[in-house]
Each structure stands twice: as structure tokens, then as C-alpha cells.
Amino acid sequence: MIALTHDPIDYLGLTESVRRPGSGAVVTFLGTVRDLTGDERTEALEYEAYPEMAELKLAEIERECRERWPVGEIAMVHRLGRLSVSEVSVAVAVSCPHRAQAFEVCRHAIDRLKEIVPIWKKDIRPDGATEWVH
Amino acid sequence: MSNVTVRLFARARDLAGRERVELGLAEQGARVVDLRRMLTELYPELGEFLDRCLVAINGEFADDFAVVPDGSEVAVLPPVSGG
Predict the structure, then answer these.
(1) ipTM value for the complex
(2) What is the pLDDT of residue B29?
(3) Smallest CA–CA separation between B70 and chain A, in Å?
(4) Contact B19/B38 with Cβ under 8 angstroms?
(5) Residues of A74-89 as b/e, b for ≥16 C-beta within 10 angstroms?
(6) Which chain B residues are within 8 Å of A116, Cβ to Cβ?
(7) Which of A14, A51, A81, A96 could cross-link with A101 by S-S, CB 3.0 to 4.6 Å?
């Protein structure tokens, strides 16, 4: 399952959605908004996407994972819009027969997401200054 | 003459002040590199940042030598920072 959403991510429901009888391992990764980058304080992050292409690329990542590992189910959701510190920006949930596979798939999926999916974030500072993270 | 829609995202959109541009490419068989040159002339504010951007044609990454088909949607993609 792949989705872009402006609403808070239901990561518990997402984790439940990948559970399968043949999968003995479930791994969920959450990316959350961090308050500090070096010495710079973040008030919020604003995410935007090229949605049509982002969905194509997320589907490509799912295919990669299914070709390389015995994936039971995989779900990837990325949030868009303005997020406050600690909010969940991205969730990847994976089930596999065994834990090593599930960890590997989850790691691969989030690494590839950060590499090829056209989504960007703008850092909003407490004083209102903004800067694209590129 | 072929017509393409160019979509700009994130900092590229902010610099150009546009999120969508309709361009007429003078010659059939124009390549991404030709389109980059046109964008630089039209939006000098993009400057060297455009060199850091990738280009996609109809949702797929395209290198500078890729031909831009008539009617395609071209996207200017700054280095991604999702997650």
C-alpha cells in the first residue's frame, strides 16, 4: 500500500495492515520531525511532493523489495503539508517470514524513498525564517 | 515545433516565481539540455541551482541527452529531501 496524505499517519493501523499468517516478523520505521539540526532549531517542516511521480517511484520501490525479498506485505505513507516537531512525516511497515529480511526490506525502502521519491521539505525556524532542505 | 509543460518544485519554483510554464521548443528532437538552456534564459534567477536539479519527463528521470517529446510534462526536481 502506497499513499501520500495531508492527514496524520495512522502508523498503528499501518503496522496492523501488513500482518500476515506467513510472516513471522513485522518492522515499522517512522520518520519524525526533529527539533535540532546542528545548532539550528526547527519549529516545523513543510513537505511538498510531485505527487504523480512520487506515487510511481513508491510503486517502483515496492517492486524492488518484492523482487529481492519474500515480502508478505509492505506499506509506505508519506505526509505532506506543515508538520510540527515530533509529528510523523513518513512510515514504512513491512512483514516477512523472518526478522532479518523484514529489517533489510524496511531499511532498503526508506533509504530508496529518501533517494528517488520527489518530495521536499522546507525548514521553518522559530523566528519565521524558512529554508529548503536540498 | 513541440509544446511541453514544465513544472517547477520547491526552491526551483520559488526562484523562478512560477510553478508551471508552457514552452514551445523550436525544433523537433529537442533534448533536455536545450530545455535547460531555455529555462536559464527565461528565468536567470534559477542560476546555478538549475544545474543541481534533475529533470523528469512524464514522471521518469531523464538525462540531458533525452529527447523531449511533443506534449510531454517536464519536471524540474531539486535534490529530494523527503523522509
Answers:
(1) 0.94
(2) 86
(3) 19
(4) no
(5) bbbbbbbeebeeeebb
(6) 61, 80
(7) A96
